[in-house]
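Researcher: We're reviewing a set of sequences before deciding which ones to prioritize for further study. For each one, I'd like a predicted 3D structure that I can look through quickly. This is Single-stranded DNA-binding protein. If possible, include the structure in token form so it fits the rest of the review sheet.
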Amino acid sequence: MSTIKNHVQLIGNVGQEPTITNLESGKKVARLSLATNENYKDSKGERQTDTNWHTVVAWGKTADIIEKYAEKGKEIAVVGKLKTRSYTANDGNQRYVTEVVADEILLLGSK
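Model: Here's the predicted structure for Single-stranded DNA-binding protein, in token form for your review sheet.
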């Protein structure tokens, strides 16, 4: 059971063009927003869609794949883990960010 701790699988659409950063150490990091949709029928029987946005971070070869193939609107699957970090904002308040750190990316549908 220890292999399924902190395990995330998402299928969604890339919300905007990924941001690629080449660090001084030579490592590459990619960041993208991923929209996942959940469809349901409301009390009136009308179809509704609930969209959730996720920040995905990828390193190394996974970042290379994102840079080459993941564009706005592209459907992808992401496998990874949740990571929460904190920082101090310009106003002096402590902020927290939860991101999906991608281990694998699978390119699915087209735009």
